[in-house]
C-alpha cells in the first residue's frame, strides 16, 4: 500500500538509516528497503542517497519528505479526532478567566459544560492576574484585551470595548461633557492593575488617534469597585462594556463621547497551548465558549 511505503520512507529519513526505521516499525531491514525502492520506482525519481554510514535526501526527496510528512501527520490527527469523538471526553480541564467577567458571564455556562460532560474533571480559576498558561498547566484561558504574539493559539469570542462612563449625579455636579478637552477637568475613577495609567487613548470620529490624561480622584483594582465608585458620582471612568452594560441600559450610567472609541480595540479570547493533537475536551470547551458569546448582550 502506498501509505505504508510513505510511512517507511519518513522513518528512514528521520532515523537516517534503514535499520533504524526497521527497528521503529518492527519489521525487517530488507522489507523497508524493498518498500522504499518500490516508492521510488512508482514516483520515477531517486529520493535517497545511500552510503554505508547513513542515508540522506536527494533534492527531490527533500521536497517530497516535507510534503508527505505533514500529510501523514494530518491523517494521524484526523484518525485521533474521530476516535475521540466516538468516546466521551475524559480527563482534567484546567480553566482560567478574569474574576468579574467570569463570575458574571461564564460561571453558568461552565457549570452547564460540566453537567454535559461529567467525565471531564473541571478545575476553574477566576482571577484577574495574568497567568502563565503553560507554566501553570492551564488548558484554556479566557483573556480580555489585546493579545501579543506568542506560541499560544487564540480564538476570538467577541469584542469587549472600553467605554467612558459617567453617573447622572456627576453630570449634574460638573456639567455635561461635549468636547474631548473637557475630560482632563473632570475627576476620574481609574483602574490600577496590569500597569494601567491615567492616560485614556482613543480614536476620534475622524479616525485620528489621541490621548488625554485623566485627573485621578479614586483608584481601584477591580471592575466592580470602579463601577460602584462611578455610580456614586465620584468621577468619570473607563470601564469594560461587560461591567456596565446593564447600568447603561437602565440609565444608572451614561456613556461619555460615544463617538470616540477606546484604543487599542479589545476583544475576548479563548487562549490555549499550541498542539497538533488537541484533546477533545479542550476542543469541545473552546467550541462551547464560542457558542456562549451569543449570550453577551452587547454583541450584535
Helix count from the secondary structure assignment: 9
Helix content percent band: 40-55%
As an assembly, this protein is: single chain
The count of strands amounts to: 15
SSE order, one letter for each helix or strand: HHHEEHEHEEEEHEEEEHEHEEEH
Beta-strand percent range: 25-35%
Quickly count the domains.
3
Shape verdict: elongated
First and last CA, distance: 52 Å
Trace the largest sheet across and list its strands. 4-3-5-15-6
Mean pLDDT: 90
Estimated structural class: alpha/beta
Query: What is the CATH architecture annotation of the largest domain?
Result: 3-Layer(aba) Sandwich
Instruction: Report the radius of gyration as a whole number of Å.
Output: 28 Å
**Which segments are poorly predicted (pLDDT under 50) over 5 or more consecutive residues?**
none
The CATH class designation of the largest domain is Alpha Beta
What's the CATH topology name of the largest domain?
D-Maltodextrin-Binding Protein, domain 2
Q: What kind of sheet is the major sheet?
A: 5 strands, mixed
Amino acid at each position: 500500500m502506498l501509505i505504508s511505503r510513505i510511512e517507511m520512507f519518513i522513518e528512514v529519513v528521520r532515523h537516517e538509516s534503514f535499520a533504524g526505521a526497521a527497528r521503529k516499525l518492527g519489521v525487517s531491514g530488507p522489507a523497508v528497503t524493498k518498500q522504499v525502492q518500490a516508492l521510488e520506482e512508482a514516483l520515477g525519481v531517486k529520493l535517497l542517497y545511500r552510503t554505508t554510514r547513513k542515508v540522506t535526501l536527494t533534492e527531490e526527496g527533500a521536497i517530497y519528505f516535507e510534503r508527505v510528512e505533514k500529510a501523514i501527520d494530518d491523517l494521524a490527527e484526523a484518525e485521533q479526532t474521530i476516535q475521540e469523538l466516538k468516546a466521551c471526553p475524559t480527563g482534567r480541564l484546567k480553566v482560567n478567566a478574569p474574576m468579574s467577567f467570569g463570575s458574571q458571564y461564564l460561571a453558568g455556562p461552565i457549570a452547564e459544560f460540566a453537567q454535559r460532560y461529567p467525565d471531564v474533571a473541571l478545575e476553574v480559576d477566576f482571577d484577574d492576574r495574568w497567568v502563565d498558561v503553560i507554566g501553570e498547566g492551564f488548558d484554556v484561558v479566557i483573556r480580555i484585551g489585546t493579545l501579543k504574539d506568542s506560541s499560544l493559539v487564540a480564538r476570538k469570542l467577541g469584542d469587549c470595548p472600553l467605554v467612558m462612563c459617567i453617573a447622572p449625579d456627576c453630570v449634574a455636579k460638573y456639567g455635561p461633557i461635549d468636547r474631548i478637552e473637557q475630560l482632563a477637568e473632570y475627576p476620574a475613577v481609574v483602574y490600577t492593575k496590569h500597569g494601567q495609567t491615567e492616560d485614556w487613548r482613543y480614536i476620534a470620529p475622524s479616525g485620528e488617534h489621541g490621548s488625554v490624561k485623566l485627573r485621578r480622584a479614586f483608584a481601584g483594582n477591580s471592575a466592580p469597585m470602579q463601577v460602584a465608585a462611578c455610580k456614586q458620582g465620584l468621577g468619570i471612568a473607563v470601564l469594560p462594556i461587560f461591567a456596565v452594560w446593564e447600568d447603561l441600559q437602565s440609565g444608572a450610567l451614561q456613556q461619555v463621547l460615544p463617538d470616540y472609541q477606546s484604543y487599542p480595540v479589545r476583544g475576548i479570547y479563548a487562549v490555549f497551548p499550541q498542539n497538533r493533537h488537541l484533546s477533545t475536551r479542550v476542543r469541545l470547551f473552546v467550541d462551547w465558549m464560542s457558542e456562549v458569546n451569543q449570550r453577551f448582550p452587547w454583541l450584535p
